[in-house]
Design goal:
By secondary structure, this protein is an alpha+beta fold. It is built from four helices and eight strands; from the N terminus they run αββββαββαβαβ. The chain has a single domain (3-135), classed as Roll (Pnp Oxidase, Chain A). The protein is globular, with a radius of gyration of 15 Å.
């Protein structure tokens, strides 16, 4: 399948499951709102949340959409967004999508951009004909 299909799924999704690893190796998964922008998934969290602490220690992350019938799964690296222009683009896109503008309220708030390294996708109705892996 073309990457444009996966990119469209990422753009239109409302919820994204972010999967990280705790310091003791246990997995941690949480849904977030986010936006697919410029080939990266942007989302915010608290530095003191479990996923925030996990990403501070180990930036490797898996993100997947809710559907197993039209699956898109990203394996990548979460990078903290510190540039004002990138944050403004994220906040504008987030506001347009959710009618809520993210604004950092404290130094504990952090925004991440997940840069995919590998992605997987498929259509359940044609798994053998559609299962695809993309490398970046």
């Amino acid at each position: 399948m073309p990457w444009s299909w996966a990119s469209a799924q990422l753009a239109k999704s409302r919820n994204y499951w972010v999967c990280t690893t705790r310091a003791d190796g246990r997995p941690h998964a949480m849904p977030v709102w986010g936006v697919w922008l410029d080939g990266k998934l942007y989302f915010g969290t608290s530095r003191s949340s479990q996923k925030g602490r996990n990403l501070e220690r180990d930036s490797r992350v898996v993100v997947h959409l809710e559907s197993g019938d039209e699956a898109v799964i990203l394996e990548g690296v979460a990078e903290e967004v510190t540039e004002r222009d990138r944050y403004a683009a994220y906040a504008n896109a987030y506001d347009a999508k959710y009618q809520f503008r993210p604004e950092p309220h404290s130094r504990d708030d952090v925004t991440y951009a997940v840069r995919p390294l590998t992605a997987f996708g498929w259509l359940e109705k044609d798994y053998t004909g559609s299962a695809t892996r993309w490398k970046f």
